[in-house]
Amino acid sequence: MLYSTKELIELNDKISTHMSIISGCMIETEKYGKLLLASPPRSRYPYIYPRDSSASAALLRRIAISLHHYDSAGQAYEMLESMARFIKDAASPEGAWGQRYGIDGKNMSIYKQEDNVAHGISIICNYLLTARHLEKEVPYLEDFLACVNKALDYGYTELYEKELNLFYSTTAIHESAMEEGYTCWVNFSFLYAYSLASEVAQKVDEKGVISPSHLNFRQHFLYTVNELFMAGNRYIRRTDPFGAMDMRPDFTLLSPFYYGFLHYTEEMKRSVMFLEKQLWDPELGMIMRYLPFYKDFSTHVHAGNGPWLQYTAILAQYHYWSGNRKRGDEILSIIDGYRSEKGEIPEHLSTRQRFEEFMDREWKTGIDFQKEFYKDILLDDVDFNTILEEANNMDRSYKDTGKMAVHPDPRRREGGYIQFAAPLTWSHVEYMRALLVRAGDWWKIHGA
């Protein structure tokens, strides 16, 4: 779809506005310059998350190299470079990454979250490919390549189960026990990482630092992963540790689309129809992550269940990609209706009634704490001080939500709504990505 000059100016202005907002989530460091946190420094998530950073890196790459020459292009490249340098240095000696990090590089992880290995690879590769496209010099290039190679090896030898031809994880995109097993999200995130590494090997790695065995594995994995997450006429979210297919609705059914592997477009279409019908919030609109069976100990929500705005923006991306601009616009318009006066987009919403019920029956009773720090999903050596810091962040966030983020509305059945974790970098990243998809400024680069 071709945009008019007026539309491109409007798009550029919107990208600049969102980039300005996430700049408020950055913090200056002596070694790396400005680093992008998941949310502002004194908020719910004052950390660097490889997951959120990987989503950001994919966006920053597009902004930096777009033929539309966005005003934020230079800023995007600088952010991407700082992010990649930090992630390279944060890698463990074995070649892995954890759930999150302090700005000093200290691993502040709580959960066994194995997909961060894929996210770390993706961040570095997106940086290297962007630098090559822009003909920018990459200091310590071989160190970056060696880091990627070691992480690829770690993923294959430690997390990939050859007999099942799938990557295993304990928690992933959401830190709850319902993630354990072989999930759609984790396996497509690894396919994305190995695909980006293959592109880096072809375009950047002149000395052959990245082992050809990893590239051969990628070709093998590419043509099997789709089939292993297909049941009937749609995708499934997970195979549990005992081999049972998890057919429940979940945002992560969008993973093949999100990571750019659309071999089965009709099955993807049916998956989207299924999750959109099942997960659409009847009071607030937009999609929930999964259905909130709160008595299920493995189902974990924060501040009351409701729609997640970054996932909803990804749903809008799908509709734009599939040519349904009207539906994409409707979804972004709903998101716009919940932005703050400053234009900030939160992580998720709940209704006032659900928030109060959550506080009474889960937070004050300690059930939420038990779910958050369930032993089976925690790292074996997690420091109690880290748990204590997280619990304090949670307590402060819930209290702040009750004081400042409540939007009462007596006309609504559930008394209005609350915003949680605003602004969230990831929410703004996916909103911007939706704008680029609508403008035709996003392309699939690794599905073949």
Keywords summarizing the entry:
about 50% helix, about 450 residues, globular, three-stranded antiparallel β-sheet
Question: Quick summary of this structure?
Answer:
This protein is mostly helical. The chain has 15 helices and twelve strands. The strands form five sheets. It has a three-stranded antiparallel β-sheet. It has a three-stranded antiparallel β-sheet with strand order 10-12-11.
Describe this structure in words.
There is one protein chain. With 448 residues, the chain is mostly helical. The chain has one domain (5-438): Glycosyltransferase (Alpha/alpha barrel), CATH 1.50.10. The protein is built from 15 helices and twelve strands. The chain has a three-stranded antiparallel beta sheet with strand order 5-8-9. Strands 10-12-11 form a three-stranded antiparallel beta sheet. Helix 2 packs parallel to helix 15 and helix 3 packs across helix 4. The radius of gyration is 21 Å and the shape is globular. 49% of the residues are buried.
